[in-house]
Design goal:
The chain is an alpha/beta fold. The protein is built from 16 helices and eight strands. The protein is globular.
Length: 378
């Protein structure tokens, strides 16, 4: 069976290893482009979330390459992500694209449907091969996240713009080519060494900006207009708490223990938000508090237009920013958003933060507020 899946940052690297290891031919859709977006917006409802539209474009471009089936995650809660696969399936059928949709629902929605889908994907594959495949997939997933995390610091100090991104892309290619856990480990070590060897000016004064928001708009560079690269090349160390490996681990592996994770996030988000609101809304508030306590100079909150959980977070974050004396820039993206506007806003935000630091000195030297105002915590 020729299988494809949506694009989301570097997810194609571990997902390719997973599907191939289960005995299927993988059709990786082309990297997201304006054509991908145009195809998706042509057929998706106008009010649909931007990720749903991009996914439709991914599937159609993969179908052109011969893909026969789609593997897509499901979801629970008030976020519309839980309906994505079903809506997308109906859209594809309506336009005559008869691709099979294999939906992997999280365990919290019931083990039986998930196990049935996994059995369908793994039929004829030995238990030993499944184990090897899962180990290789996880190793690639973690390796990609570690490489990207390191790049978010190195890029702020690079002497020649683009050198960090070039080294990072080469490291990704080596991880993608690796066909064993040991080879992934070696590719990771080599990638880390190459990133660290990028010529850097460590005497340079840099800012630290946290990025929070909806996972797809954070991880897919086409959708966020390579926001983190842009910030890095402006001399900004980017910090974030959302990583693909964490999402996979909590969404699929630990989904049955969602209440415990929610309790941890609520303890951070309190008193601003005290319950799950779907998607990554709770995480956006909790992570903003966590990053504020960690000493960032500002926060960029990115979300798709009409994303309900992030709209909830957006209404709360000004209070967090006020209490922690932390500037917050909200970036809302849809098919009409342009890179020039995003670039201008990011440059203005970085200039604002640099000016504030120059006038007031570092926050740590000025006894930066690390806990919410007494009036809010009482």
């Amino acid at each position: 069976m020729k299988v494809t899946f949506p694009h989301m940052g570097t997810a194609y690297i571990p997902f390719r290893a997973l599907i191939e290891g289960l005995g299927h031919e993988v059709i990786v859709a082309p990297a997201c482009t304006q054509r991908t977006l145009s195809l998706g917006t042509r057929y998706a409802p106008e009010s649909a979330c931007l990720p749903l539209k991009i996914n439709i474009g991914n599937y159609l471009e993969a179908a052109e390459l011969g893909a026969e089936a789609i593997v897509m995650a499901g979801g629970i809660g008030p976020c519309r992500f839980g309906f994505y696969a079903y809506v997308q399936q109906e859209i594809l059928r309506d336009i005559g694209c008869d691709m099979e949709m294999i939906i992997l629902e999280p365990p919290a929605s019931g083990w039986r449907p998930l196990l049935a889908r996994l059995k369908y994907l793994t039929q004829g594959v030995s238990a030993a091969q499944i184990t090897r495949t899962l180990r290789l997939t996880w190793a690639k997933l973690v390796a990609c996240d570690r490489l990207e995390q390191l790049s978010l610091t190195v890029r702020a100090y690079e002497i020649r713009k683009g050198s960090t991104t070039k080294a990072l892309q080469q490291a990704y290619r080596e991880v993608d080519r690796a066909d064993s856990v040991d080879m992934v480990r070696r590719a990771l070590e080599e990638g880390i060494a190459n990133l660290q060897s990028v010529p850097q000016d460590r005497q340079r004064s840099v800012l630290a900006i946290g990025v929070v928001g909806e996972i797809y708009t954070i991880l897919e560079p086409f959708v966020n207009f390579r926001l983190e690269e842009q910030l890095g090349e402006m001399g900004v160390v980017v910090r974030r708490k959302i990583w693909l490996s964490d999402w996979i681990f909590h969404h699929l592996v630990l989904s049955a223990f969602r209440k415990q994770r929610e309790a941890q996030l609520v303890s951070l988000a309190r008193p601003y938000l005290q319950h799950f609101v779907g998607g990554h809304g709770l995480e956006s508030v909790a992570h903003t508090v966590q990053l504020a306590r960690g000493g960032v100079d500002g926060i960029v909150h990115i979300l798709p237009f009409t994303c309900m959980p992030e709209i909830v977070a957006q209404s709360i974050l000004p209070s967090v920013g006020e209490d922690y004396q932390l500037p917050i820039l909200t970036v809302v993206v849809d098919e009409h958003t342009g890179i020039a506007g995003i670039r201008t806003r990011l440059e203005a935000f970085v200039d604002l933060l640099a000016s504030s630091r120059a006038k007031a000195g570092s926050r740590s030297e000025k006894g930066r507020l690390l806990t919410p105002a007494a009036s809010r915590s009482s």
